[in-house]
Specification:
363 residues, alpha+beta, 4-stranded mixed beta sheet, 12% strand
Length: 363
């Protein structure tokens, strides 16, 4: 609707374009200064909105991660300090050695699909833009060929002493930064578009409007305020109050949209486990002390209660998905898919609360 779009553009002081001319920046890049580009990693590490998620992952290591941690914790590997579940931007690394700018990723079977390899490639490019080298090892190598893994890691110590950061040129970050305007050699935090002037986004596109609306529709305060109206008619979506609020909600709405489509790499960072072998037949389903039992003996472990009870519309996805598969055998892909659903629901709860802190005064 051209009239509505024009009103939004006028209210926000932005220009509307029919589509974005180049891929958006990856969220959470932070500020990279031309005078000291290596400091860029500091401002994008361990962003606050990932704190809870990182803690969950640390408390629920996979068997391979737990084994590897015993090998490197307390600076056991030639005196190098390693961190567990260290995040850079919106990506969470399995292990990170800050002195060597070296990341260790332990990959299970879920990483060998074409889709997952695409995510991994994107993730690796992002890390390379900050001068971080990624080493990937299949989970079974941690148990079957431990010494080789450790020697391979040690052979990469010192790599960054002679290799320049490949993506910094004249103070500008050129990975994911095509068709951009950068002032003072700095890239603003959470830039989600491609035209920057003085640190502010000056154009918006249809996808931004969609993500803004998607965020508003997931505000708990909004849903409570208009719950009766939502049952009978199309919802009223308030106009954004200012450009800052608009872009905050665009960012969160975009995150939520990609998570719900299971397209976000976040859903690959499993917070649950499926530890018991068996026939994998879905029988009587129950939840007890963080465990979702699919039959008498088998269960998904470390399932947050908020994810198990979470409602979307009139049903609870974590429960309905299993109930719809009663008496069926869960294959390997089903088990991975369900764990993605749990991550998506857990993240949805977090993002909805973040959205609500922004929208409470709007609705």
């Amino acid at each position: 609707n051209g009239e509505i779009v024009e009103k939004i553009a006028e209210k926000l002081g932005l220009k509307f374009v029919s589509e974005k001319s180049s891929p958006p920046f990856k969220e959470g890049l932070g500020v990279v200064s031309s005078s000291n580009p290596n400091n860029g990693i500091g401002v994008v590490s361990n962003l606050s909105h990932l704190k809870t998620f990182r803690k969950e992952l640390r408390n629920n290591l996979t068997p391979a991660e737990a084994k590897f941690w015993t090998l490197v914790q307390n600076s056991k590997l030639e005196g190098r300090k390693f961190r567990r579940q260290h995040s850079v931007g919106n990506y969470i690394l399995d292990f990170y050695c800050p002195s060597e700018r070296l990341a260790i990723e332990l990959d299970g079977a879920g990483h060998f699909t074409d889709e997952s390899q695409g995510y991994d490639k994107e993730r690796d490019l992002f890390m390379e833009s900050f001068g971080i080298k990624i080493l990937r090892f299949e989970n079974k190598l941690i148990f079957d060929n431990t010494e080789w893994v450790l020697e391979e890691i040690k052979s990469n110590f010192g790599w960054n002493k002679t290799t320049p950061n490949p993506s910094l040129k004249g103070g500008e970050l050129d990975v994911f930064a095509t068709n951009t305007s950068l002032k003072g050699g700095e890239l603003d935090v959470f830039a989600t578009n491609t035209s920057l002037k003085g640190g502010e986004l000056d154009v918006f596109a249809p996808i931004d409007i969609l993500d803004y609306i998607y965020a508003v529709l997931h505000s708990p305060t909004y849903r409570e305020t208009y719950k009766e109206f939502l049952k009978i008619d199309f919802p009223r979506v308030p106009y954004p109050e200012n450009a800052q609020t608009f872009w905050q909600l665009v960012k969160l709405g975009g995150e939520l949209r990609q998570i719900h489509l299971l397209e976000s790499p976040v859903v690959e960072n499993y917070i649950t486990q499926y530890p018991i072998d068996g026939d994998n037949v879905v029988g009587k389903i129950r939840y007890a002390e963080g465990k979702v039992y699919i039959n008498e003996t088998q269960y998904f472990d470390s399932v947050p209660e908020v994810a198990w009870n979470f409602y979307i519309g009139g049903y609870q996805p974590a429960q309905k998905w299993l109930k719809d598969r009663k008496d069926r055998v869960l294959v390997f892909e089903d088990i991975l898919h369900y764990q993605k659903i749990i991550v998506a629901l857990f993240e949805t709860d977090r993002i909805m609360r973040e959205i609500d802190s922004i929208t409470k005064q709007m609705v």
